[in-house]
């Protein structure tokens, strides 16, 4: 019924156009007054003009209607007050279609805004990019994690790690990839996952960033603390009676004025065996006590510390040891640089790092550099050596308690150093290249 009037109008006009010439022919054949023929001619011209006007107006309004869809314009409105009733019905139908399209578009926009706001409020860092690396959306968690105010191009992430943008674009859907990023003097261990989405003809890539370093370190810390508590309890309980018995027997044999009925070489053999057992048990007790110190480290006492003076004390402490192996220990630090820290604990950490550096040297022109610098409001302390370095497959194990590659080492130094840094709210980072040297950095965060 929508186009009933429009169709009827066209039919009537077409019929009149067909009849009018016939009427003119009849008038001419029967020699009727020429005035009637002129009137029919004018009527015919009017009908042709009217038909052309109707068709052109219909085409014009239809083109306007179709173009509004092409440009997504839902604000267009066709007036239903047209004098021609046929156009009133047509324009009313156009308006109904435009309103339905507008409502559909509004529902889609509401749905998009809902999901966009949901992504922005998620605790997981999210970035959405197109196939050309243009950033379509980021959420607050991502900007906070990577310390950016905005990101327009994925290439900007290459400032955190060279080639990171290419890694992200090549990440397979639902594949997890781990990367280490240095952000504002903070080392992040980030798990990356990617999902491909299709929006009309465009392919979008949603990438999630999740810093799992704290979870990994927390689990690691809990595991070795639990192990140490068990070790301390069990081993000391076992060694205590051994110490007492071995010490008593040793004293009995050494102080006994009445010789026992046994050969002298047998007696000496027993004394040596008991003495060895006693010394070994003492060594094991001291070994376990060193690990007990880690479980007792619960908090730090921070104070204002002059970093240059701290490094100078350590340089003086190792001057003789460094001279013996022909090593130069240098300091790179401003004289007035200061920071709030637990000076005693950090000094012990630095002593351990310098000691490790000296033990790793295998060159005649060896050197160790202690470097202190500020990155914004955060302090970075580094100990660099040009020793033999750490093999790539062992670099992630050096901070694990009990793990050591050095003969006579107990594997406690770097593990304890990492715990000290965690108590300071910072991190310990180890970088090494085999044959070139090692850099251990203490990263403090405000």
Automatic annotation (TrEMBL):
Residues 230-446 form the Histidine kinase domain. Its EC number is 2.7.13.3. It is an enzyme of class 2 (transferase). It catalyses: ATP + protein L-histidine = ADP + protein N-phospho-L-histidine. It holds the Pfam family HATPase_c. SMART domains: HATPase_c. Keywords: ATP-binding, Kinase, Membrane, Nucleotide-binding, Transferase, Transmembrane, Transmembrane helix, Two-component regulatory system. InterPro entries: BphY/WalK/GraS-like, HATPase_C_sf, HATPase_dom, His_kinase_dom, Sig_transdc_His_kin-like_C. The chain crosses the membrane at residues 7-30, 36-55. One of its GO terms (molecular function) is protein histidine kinase activity. The keyword Transferase applies. One of its GO terms (biological process) is osmosensory signaling via phosphorelay pathway. Signal peptide: none annotated. The keyword Transmembrane helix applies. This is histidine kinase. It comes from Carboxylicivirga sediminis.
């Amino acid at each position: 019924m929508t186009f009933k009037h429009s169709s009827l109008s066209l039919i009537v006009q077409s019929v009149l156009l067909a009849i009018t010439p016939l009427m003119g022919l009849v008038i001419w054949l029967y020699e009727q007054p020429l005035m009637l023929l002129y009137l029919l001619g004018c009527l015919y011209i009017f009908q042709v003009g009217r038909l052309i006007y109707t068709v052109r107006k219909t085409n014009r309004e239809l083109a306007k209607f179709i173009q509004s869809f092409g440009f997504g314009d839902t604000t267009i409105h066709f007036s239903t007050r047209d004098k021609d009733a046929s156009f009133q019905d047509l324009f009313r139908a156009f308006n109904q279609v435009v309103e339905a399209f507008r409502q559909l578009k509004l529902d889609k926009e509401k749905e998009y805004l809902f999901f966009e706001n949901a992504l922005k409020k998620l605790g997981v860092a999210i970035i959405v990019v197109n196939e050309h690396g243009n950033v379509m959306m980021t959420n607050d968690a991502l900007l906070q994690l990577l310390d950016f105010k905005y990101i327009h191009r994925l290439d900007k992430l290459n400032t955190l790690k060279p080639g990171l943008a290419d890694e992200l674009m090549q990440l397979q859907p639902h594949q997890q990839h781990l990367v280490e990023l240095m952000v504002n003097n903070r080392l992040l261990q980030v798990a990356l996952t990617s999902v491909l989405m299709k929006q009309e003809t465009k392919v979008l890539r949603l990438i999630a960033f999740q810093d799992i370093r704290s979870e990994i370190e927390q689990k690691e810390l809990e595991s070795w603390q639990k192990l140490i508590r068990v070790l301390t309890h069990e081993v000391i309980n076992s060694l205590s009676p051994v110490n007492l018995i071995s010490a008593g027997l040793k004293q009995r044999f050494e102080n006994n004025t009445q010789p026992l009925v046994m050969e002298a070489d047998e007696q000496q053999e027993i004394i040596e065996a008991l003495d060895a057992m006693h010394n070994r048990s003492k060594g094991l007790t001291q070994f376990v006590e060193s690990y007990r110190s880690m479980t007792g480290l619960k908090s730090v006492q921070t104070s204002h510390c002059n970093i240059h003076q701290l490094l100078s004390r350590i340089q003086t402490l190792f001057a003789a040891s460094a001279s013996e192996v022909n090593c130069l220990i240098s300091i790179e630090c401003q004289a007035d640089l200061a920071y709030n820290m637990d000076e005693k604990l950090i000094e012990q950490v630095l002593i351990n790092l310098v000691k490790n550096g000296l033990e790793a040297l295998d060159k005649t022109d060896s050197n160790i550099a202690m470097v202190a610098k500020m990155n914004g409001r955060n302090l970075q302390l580094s100990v660099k050596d040009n020793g033999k370095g750490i093999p790539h497959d062992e670099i992630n194990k050096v901070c694990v308690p009990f793990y050591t590659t050095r003969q006579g080492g107990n594997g406690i130094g770097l593990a304890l150093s990492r715990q000290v840094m965690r108590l300071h709210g910072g991190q310990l980072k180890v970088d090494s290249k085999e044959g070139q040297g090692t850099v251990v950095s203490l990263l403090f965060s405000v």
